[in-house]
Amino acid sequence: MNASLPVFTETDLARWIDARSLARGRAYFQSGAIEQPTHSAAADAHSLAALCHGSRATPYRVQATFDEHGLAAHFCTCPFDGRCKHLAALLFAWLDDPAAFTAQADLETRLAQRTPAELIELIQQMIDRQPELAWLLDLPTARDRTSARPIDPELIRRQVQQALRSIDEDDYHAARDFAGEIDHLIGLGRQYATQPDWPNAAIVYDTILREVLEVYGQLHDDGDLAGRLIDCVNGLGDCLAASDDAAQRLPIVQALFDTVAWDIRFGGTGLSDNAYDLLLNFLTSAERSLVGAWVRSALAQTAPDRDYARRAFGGLYLNLQDTVIDDESYLEICREAGLASALLDRLLQLDRDTEAIAVARAASDYELLQLADILVKRERVEIAVQLVRERQSTSKDWRLSEWLKQQAAQRGDVNEVLSLAEQLFRQRPSVEGYQQLHAAAEACQRWDSVRVQALTQLIQSQQFGLLTEIHLLAGDIDATLSTVEKVPAHWWGNAFNEPLQLKVARAAEAERPAEALRLYRAHVARLIDQRGRANYTAAAQHLVRMRAIYQRLDQLDAWSRYFAELRERYRNLRALHQELAKVGLIPE
Fold first, then answer.
1. CB 376 within 8 A of CB 344
2. Are 375 and 381 in contact (CB under 8 A)?
3. FRET label pair with 437: which of 91, 174, 501, 540, CA 20 to 30 Å apart?
4. pLDDT averaged over every residue in the chain
C-alpha cells in the first residue's frame, strides 16, 4: 500500500460499515454531500478528511486514518461518531476520484511551518468564526508538563452546560445528541492522560461525570450517554492506577464514591459498576477506611423506607471492610442496612441459632424463602422447614408450598409431595400444575381418585379453558370437544396468538373432521370480523386447510357452497380478496 494513497475496495467498505449506513453513505456521496476533500500522509499512516453535508445546517467533519492493515481510526462530528453514513460517503468519494482530494501535510507539520505571529493570527481568525472555541486558550496545554497548572473545573463545567443548552431536552434522541456534544471534552481528558498529565485528566473526567449525572434522569438514554459516563469512570480508574500520591488520589476516590452513591440513590442503573469495582480493588487501606466512613454517613442519611439504597450502602461497606471488620460490627451494619441474608448467615456461622430464627420470623414471605435456603446450606434443614411451614399456614404465597414440596421431594416423602401438589393446584391451577399433580399421585398410586378430584375442582370453578387444555394433552378428543364449547369468547384470540379453539380444531381433524370444520368456520368468521390485513392472511391460510379436509371427506360441493357464501358476505373487503388470491383460493 502506497504511504500516501490508501487502497481499499467496496468489499472492504462492506466489512467496515454496516449495510444500512453504507447504502445511505453512497446516496450522500452521489448527491454531492462531500466538500473540501483532502488526504495527508505521515511516516506510517495516512488520512482522508472532508466536510459532509447531512441533516443539520452545519456540515459534519469526517476523517478516516489508514495504516498498513487498513482502516485504523475514524472520526465524525455527528452524534454517532463511528462508522456512519458520513464516513461511508467520504470513502465512496475516494473510490470514485482520488484526484479530487487535495494533498496536504498533516496538521502538526503545517502548524510547525508557521511563525508565532502567523499562528496568533490564525487563531484569531478561527475564534472570530467560532467564538465558542476561545475557552481553550484558558486551558493548560496537554504537552506542557512543566507548569503543572491545574485546569479550572469551571471551564469544563461551562462547556458541559453549553452542550446541554444546545440540545432539545424534549427530543427522544436528546441523550444521544448530548453525548455527541461532550465527546470533545472526553477527548480532552484522554489527551491529558496520554502526555501523561493525570491530575488534569482526572479534573476533566470528574467534572463531566458530576455535571452529566445532575441531568441524567431528565433524558431518555438508550445507552449513548451511559457509555460516555462509563468512559469517564474508566478514565478516572486509569488516573487512580497511575498515581501513588495520596493528595492526588483523594479527589479521584471521592469522584468514584460519589458516582456509586448517585447510582445507589437513583435506583441502580449499572452506570457505576466499574466505579464500584475500582473502590473495592484499587484503594489503599487508608482509603478504604475513609470511603467506609463516607458510606456509613450516607447510610445514616438514607430514609428508612429506601430499602434498596440502605441495602446497597450496607453491602458496599461490608465489601470494603471485609478483612478488618469484627463480627459484632458486621452484625450491626446488617441490622442497620436491612441485610437479612447476610445477618442470618453470619449468625449461623457463629452458632447463634436463636437470633437467626428471630431474623427469619421477622422477614417477609419472599425474604423467608431466601433465608430458608441459607439455613439449608448451613445444615439447619429442619429449622428451615419448620419456619416455612409456620408461615405457610397464614400466608397465601404459593412459593412457600413450592419450596416445601421441593424439600419433601429431596427427602423422598412422596405423600407430602402429593399433599403439597394438591394444595398448589387448588391455589394456582395450570397445565404444569396438573402434570406435577399427576406425577406426584402416580408415585403414591392414587392417580385415579386424585384426577377425579382435580377435574371436579375445575368444573365447579368453571375453568373450561384449562379443562380443555388438559383433555387435549391427554388426547381425549370427545372430552375436548365437549368442554371447548364452554370456553369464553375472549379465548378465541386473533392472528397474533394461537387460540385454544384452533388447537382443538387441528387435533380433531383426524377423528372428528366435521367438528374440526365447525371450529375452523367459527374461527375464520371471527378473524375476518376483526378486520386487518394480518387477520385476513391468517383466515386465508385456515381456509386452505379447510378445503383439504372437505376434499378428503369427498365434500367439495359443501366447500364450494360455504366458500361462495363467505365471499359474498365479505364482498366489499378488497384486502381479504387479495389474501385469498395469494393462497390460490380465487384468481388474481
1. no
2. yes
3. 501
4. 89
Q: What is the DSSP letter of 161?
A: H
User: From CA 298, how far away is CA 306, in angstroms rounded?
Assistant: 12
The confidence score (pLDDT) of residue 151 equals 86
- Is 70 exceeded by the pLDDT of residue 403? yes
Residues pairing with 41 in the sheet: 46
Q: Which residues are registered as beta bridge partners of 76?
A: 62
Cell of 531: 378486520
> For 179-190, what is the mean pLDDT?
88
**Rounded distance between C-alpha atoms, residue 224 and residue 227, angstroms:** 5
pLDDT at 46: 83
* d(C-alpha 166, C-alpha 233), whole Å: 24
- For the chain, the residue count is 588
Beta bridge partners of 531: none
CA-atom Rg of the chain in angstroms: 35
Cell numbers of 80, please? Answer: 454517532
DSSP string for residues in 520-561: HHHHHHHHHHH-SHHHHHHHHHHHHHHHHHHHHTT-HHHHHH
Residue in the structure block whose three cell numbers are 453549553: 162
Q: Give 230-239 pLDDT, tens digit per residue.
A: 999 999 999 9
CB 84 within 8 A of CB 78: yes
User: pTM of the predicted model, to two decimals?
Assistant: 0.69
Residues 180 and 228: beta-carbon distance below 8 Å: no
- Report how far residue 161's alpha carbon sits from residue 211's, in angstroms, rounded to the nearest whole number: 8
Residue 75 DSSP SS3: strand
Compute φ and ψ for 61, nearest 5 degrees: -95, 125
73 bridge partner residues: 65
Answer yes or no: are the C-beta atoms of 173 and 218 closer than 8 Å.
no
351 grid coordinates: 452458632
Q: Which amino acid is at 270?
A: G
Cα dist from 383 to 370, 388, 538, whole Å = 14, 9, 57
Q: What is the largest CA-CA distance in the chain?
A: 102
Nearest-angstrom CA–CA distance, 38 and 47: 8
Backbone angles phi, psi at 75, to 5 degrees: -150, 140
CB-count exposure of residue 27 (10 Å: 0-12, 13-18, 19+)? middle
In 3-state terms, what secondary structure has residue 488?
coil
What phi and psi, each to the nearest 5 degrees, are found at residue 514? -65, -40
Sign, CA dihedral 173-178-179-181, equals positive
Average pLDDT over residues 285-314: 95
The answer to whether 320 and 291 have CB atoms below 8 angstroms apart is yes
Peptide bond between residue 196 and the one before it cis (omega within 30 degrees of 0): yes
Q: Among the residues of 412-476, which ranges form H helices?
A: 414-427, 431-443, 447-460, 464-474
Separation of alpha carbons 240 and 205, rounded Å: 12
* DSSP for residue 344: H
Q: Give the span between the Cα atoms of 420 and 285, in whole angstroms.
A: 52
Count of H-run helices and E-run strands, the chain: 30, 5
Q: Which residues pair with 65 in a beta bridge?
A: 47, 73
CB 93 within 8 A of CB 29: yes
